[in-house]
Design brief:
560 residues; mainly alpha; binds copper (II) ion; binds protoporphyrin IX containing FE
Length: 560
């Protein structure tokens, strides 16, 4: 037994020294290429929307605003985020667990193929104007059945990757009895647990929609569909967040030359997010009828509860920054911040991402409150909010990761020139989002609706008052598209043209005097059991109520 352990650790070390194997590298490369292609196309569509909203561009009838918006949402919140998350964590699993098992790699490829097939199924009806139901596809709006069949394939593809990750981690644990799973793989486990359990409700929803959209079943329970959607949608948000947080805890400290924050508390944050996340979905349905006040209250409570691990994260990150900067001779109450590597894009991008999370999180807490939600619900405020959260906090972290992950898998190096380009990219993205998201937040408070193509409502004075802000929105969108082009250029350059060389996979060590992490953090079966109990607490009563006391079902509608 001991010999076996020694042998595997030797193999692990050899693997780390030689870098990622070509087979594992090409997997992550393919995932990242799809992610950044989605960014490019989705970004261009975003610009079209921004110009339209400002009244500067009329979209043709064969590619109207709602087709563009459906594709923008799908490409950016589903394709970009899913492919990046999986590509990044599979590289992390490969690096920290001594290379992917051949079986696991194969599963990730099958998952890749299924997601692409699903994507084609979903996109064709959008292009044919048969699926302008937006990425939330709320019934009773009904798209072509093929749109939903596409979504099923995407979910199945994600499950393949989740199970692949579970097999990889379980195999490592079998060979390393009593040891803690390396921290990045621990995050990956949490993310894939949430991906699997979080996408179960949407899979059920889509399976009930398909027969209805084919016309085999006459009506659908709209409330149940919306509830199942947000049990998933709300979880998805925290999957992106947890992915970004993994880089903040594990990668960023290494890049600034410091050490990780407390290992036990880091693992606690992951476990807390996994357990408490799913039953928060009703904060997206605060104004939906038919859900009792007490149930909504519980979901709002759960949503605010996950603010707690987020605040822990904020504290932890600034503690790491200050400690590292002071070790480098930083002085004064705040003067230490000068010692941080602001000129290094691998630090700057995630740092701006974290700073953006301060107003983004505050806005989220405001929206979750019943009274304030009434003011901003379905206005552009909400769009401003998620361009700050996912469009800045998450995406800028992903961009920051790309400046070392892409060279790492491509056996190339980040040159000072591309680093500089990355710094400029980060600044442009920040300015663009300040304008775009700022304008969206503001004009939303004046009632400008989301998901609505340009109109002055017959020159109503109120609607005309929105115009200056919508112009600022378009200005921000123009900055952002420059940011998209620079980022895609950087990724392609780093993948295919940058000078050859070894790039490190940056994982920070614990402090030397770190306390040993207790082993309960590794008990995933218990964590999942508690999670399921909490999910049951949040969903059993309202779902049973919606089904048993069902309102009349709805036939499908095509509203566009
Ligand atoms: C070039 C950059 C971008 C621009 C110019 C842009 C612009 C816009 C605009 C104008 C809207 C529509 C507002 C409405 O009518 O409701 C929108 C919606 C949206 N955007 Fe972006 N965006 C960009 C990047 C992103 C990114 C990076 C993400 C996510 C990762 C994202 C996610 C979304 C989502 C989920 C929607 C909502 C779609 C819906 O309501 O169905 N966007 N964006
Ligand atoms: Cu949510």
């Amino acid at each position: 037994m001991e010999a076996l352990v020694r042998k595997t650790t030797f193999k692990d070390k050899a693997n780390k020294a030689l870098g990622i194997s070509p087979e594992d590298a090409i997997l992550t490369k393919s995932y990242l290429l799809v992610a950044f292609a989605a960014l490019l196309v989705g970004g261009i569509l975003g610009l079209l929307q921004g110009l339209n909203r400002a009244g500067l561009l009329e979209l043709p009838s064969w590619f109207n605003y709602y087709q563009v918006l459906t594709a923008h949402g799908l490409l950016l919140v589903l394709v970009l985020t899913a492919f990046f998350t999986i590509g990044y964590f599979y590289a992390g699993l490969s690096h920290t667990l001594g290379g992917l098992l051949p079986k696991v790699r194969k599963m990730a490829w099958i998952g890749f193929g299924m997601k692409l097939v699903g994507f084609v199924f979903a996109v064709v009806p959008i292009l044919l104007n048969k699926a302008s139901v937006l990425y939330t596809f709320y019934p009773p709006m009904a798209a072509s059945p093929y749109y939903y069949i596409g979504l099923v394939f995407i979910v199945l593809g994600v499950w393949m990757c989740a199970f692949g990750a579970f097999i990889q981690v379980a195999n490592w644990r079998k060979n390393h009895k009593g040891q803690h799973v390396p921290i990045l793989s621990f995050f990956a486990t949490g993310v894939f647990v949430l991906l699997f359990f979080g996408s179960l409700p949407v899979a059920i929803e889509v399976l009930t929609i398909i027969p209805w959209s084919f016309g085999w079943v006459k009506t659908i329970n709209v409330m149940v569909a919306r509830t199942l959607f947000w049990a998933f949608g709300h979880t998805l948000v925290n999957i992106w967040y947890l992915t970004a947080v993994s880089a903040w805890y594990v990668i960023v400290p290494k890049i600034i030359g410091g050490r990780r924050w407390n290992d036990t508390l880091t693992r606690f944050v992951v476990i807390a997010l996994v357990i408490m996340n799913i039953p928060g979905g009703f904060h997206h349905q605060i104004i939906d009828p038919g859900i009792s006040e007490s149930i909504k209250y519980m979901h709002v409570f759960m949503s605010l509860a996950i603010g707690f691990p987020s605040l822990m994260t904020a504290y932890a990150m600034f503690a790491v920054f200050e400690r590292t900067a002071r070790r480098k001779g930083g002085k004064g109450l705040l003067g230490w911040y000068k010692k941080l590597p602001w000129g290094d894009v691998r630090f700057l991008a995630p740092m701006v991402a974290m700073i953006a999370f301060i107003p983004a999180g505050a806005g989220g807490i405001a929206q979750t409150t019943n009274q304030l939600n009434q003011v901003v619900h379905n206005t552009l405020w909400v769009v401003g909010h998620f361009h700050l959260t996912v469009g800045t906090s998450v995406i800028l972290t992903f961009f920051g990761i790309s400046y070392w992950l892409v060279p790492y898998i491509s056996k190339r190096v980040l040159t000072p020139k591309i680093n500089k380009l990355g710094v400029i990219q980060t600044i442009i993205w920040t300015i663009g989002m300040l304008f775009m998201s700022g304008a969206m937040h503001y004009v939303g408070l004046f009632g400008a609706p989301r998901r609505t193509s340009f109109t002055t409502y017959g020159d109503s004075a109120v609607a005309l008052g929105w115009n200056p802000y919508l112009m600022l929105l378009a200005v921000g969108g123009t900055f952002l598209i420059i940011g998209v082009l620079l980022q895609v250029y950087a990724v392609v350059h780093l993948m295919f043209f940058a000078p050859k060389g070894e790039t490190e996979f940056p994982i920070a060590e614990e402090e030397e005097d770190a306390v040993k992490t207790p082993y309960w953090t590794e008990r995933w079966s218990r964590t999942i059991l508690i999670m399921l109990l909490v999910v049951a607490m949040g969903y059993v009563i309202p779902l049973v109520d919606m089904i048993v006391n069902a309102p009349p079902g709805s036939p499908p509608f095509k509203t566009w």
